[in-house]
Design a protein that fits this description.
The protein has 8 helices and 2 strands; from the N terminus they run αααββααααα. It has about 160 residues and is mainly α.
């Protein structure tokens, strides 16, 4: 993917703008610059917003949901949507036996940086005592609890499987 496509696009938590507003601004920018790949990616993300719902209890006592209003959508909601799209794109690429795609790279530019393999391995070495677990995979819980959304579960699983 060329740097020109991602130039000015992407988001991180240190920016003074919400992810929702950044996506809207980037969509406008991509349309003005006639950048179809970024435009279509922004539209794909925004097309998932109606799936974000708020639980309701109706007057009859029946439970229901309603779509979130734009002001109710949080950065975490949107990050969850983007992670879902990344996961589905990675599955498609695995089937096609491809490494990456422009769409995947654009999506990833809106996600916070994840912990590297080396960072995860170093934390495991410093903090996990495998003698307290029946098998290595039981250490998955504490590792994921520490890293939270900054670690990919598949990657942690693979590191633990390879651990000596």
């Amino acid at each position: 993917m060329t740097d020109g496509i991602r130039k000015g696009y992407g988001w991180d938590q240190d920016m003074s703008i919400s992810l929702y507003d950044k996506l809207k601004n980037d969509l406008k920018k991509a349309m003005l610059q006639k950048n179809p790949s970024v435009r279509d990616t922004m539209r794909q993300i925004m097309a998932e917003f109606p799936k974000l719902t708020v639980p309701l209890t109706l007057e009859s006592g029946k439970k229901s949901t309603r779509p979130k209003k734009p002001e109710e959508i949080t950065d975490d909601d949107i990050l969850g949507v983007i992670k879902g799209l990344v996961k589905s794109e990675q599955t498609v690429l695995e089937i096609k036996k491809e490494e990456t795609s422009e769409y995947l790279e654009i999506l990833k530019s809106y996600l916070p940086a994840t912990a590297t393999r080396e960072e995860i391995a170093a934390w495991i070495k410093a903090n996990i005592d495998f003698s307290q677990f029946k098998n290595k995979m039981q250490a998955m819980g504490p590792v994921m609890k520490h890293f939270g959304k900054l670690a990919d579960g598949k990657q942690v699983n693979q590191i633990l499987r390879e651990w000596e």
